[in-house]
Amino acid sequence: MRPPRTADPLPAPSQLAADVAVVGGGPVGCVAALAFARAGARVCLIDAAQSSRLAGEWLHPTAAGALAELGVELPAAGVEHAPGRGFAIFPKGCEPIVLPYVDGELGIGCQHHLLVGALRNAIAARPEIAVLSGCRAVEVARGRVTAVTVDRARTVRVAAETIVGADGRQSVVRQALGYSGAARPVSYMVGVLIEPSALPFAEYGNVLLGGPGPVLAFRVGPNRARVCIDVPADRVAWVRNPTELLAAYRPTLPAALADAIADALAAEPPSVAANQLLRRRRYGRAGVALVGDAVGHCHPLCAVGMSVGFLDAVTLAGSRSVEEYAAARRLAGRVPELLSTGLYDLFARTDAGSTELRDAVYHLWRTSAAARRDTMRLLAVRETRRCALGVTFARLLAAASRRVVAGVFDRPLSRTVATVAGFGSWAGWFARESLTDRAR
Questions:
Q1: Burial class of residue 289 (count of CB atoms within 10 Å of its CB; 0-12, 13-18, 19+)
Q2: pTM, two decimal places
Q3: Which of 5-19, 31-45, 330-344, 395-409 has the highest mean pLDDT?
Q4: One domain, residues 37 and 118
């Protein structure tokens, strides 16, 4: 009998020393490295091979501003991108609702790999940052990270006072802290690239509703646009069957956009990602911190992921301790998560209460400039106070209730009862989430 095979022994590790070791070389990890370097720290960035999965490509003005403050400006760097003025919402069978960013601010659409490339170029110009390319962390302890190359030919041990986990959803640093990484599956995202001429509003993120799931389409450059199709978890077969996928969504899409998606699906397989929910509750302790998706993640419909991650990184670099950072972000990072989860559920659910609430949202957006402004300040992560979200939610619930009362004689009693029960469900959700936060 052949003896069982054992793993090849690792070579003797080489040693590096830094003030900060950042695990993960995606956009948030790169921003963390740049922010710490700007603060005067010696940084080691541990960067595994880049993932090919569908990832963030929309930067709210908050995130674009964070990049500019770090000296990363995509126009100056010659990186293909497109400005974004806000969002255009397309309710089923209704005229679109345009929600511009406040005070003329601009977001940025950029292909993920081009954004990472621009950040890497900025890092290369900073002598305070050493990069371990093609290395993945295999062991993390306070004050030390052990990394190996993909072929296991080299082992590097990095000693650092602060360790930053920017290594995404399957974070090794999070696991080392003993935090649960069990996320709740939400849906799947199918992504294709198309010609931007097919977009209804070329300078906005187009959110098309009324299909099996929301569709988000936006420019990522002068000649390219990204389309992200949200596929319900119980319809995963559509991910592997472009014909069925398109047939399910075509009735709610403009003809030009549907045809462009069909051409893209016929030309090559789409990019696919799983959408998951992991609440942002734990940020690290005692010299080991988490940022971005390693903290938690939510549905990408509102595109807050990179903005929140960049703010995590900048706040951490400016904090005196991991505990100070965690206290600050625990408050500010929760509102974007609640907004993303709430809006996605509101757009996706079909119960009577959600339908009435959704119609009230549309009405408020159409008729109130203040409501549009408040929504976009929350969405762009300019406003992160819990009370601001609470006021917006209460205003929405009140408006929906008035609409139901006004039409009580025009609908069956059973419908009214179901609607009121739905309102109670939404109010209970918001109350539970807020109480849970305060109890932590």
A1: buried
A2: 0.91
A3: 31-45
A4: yes
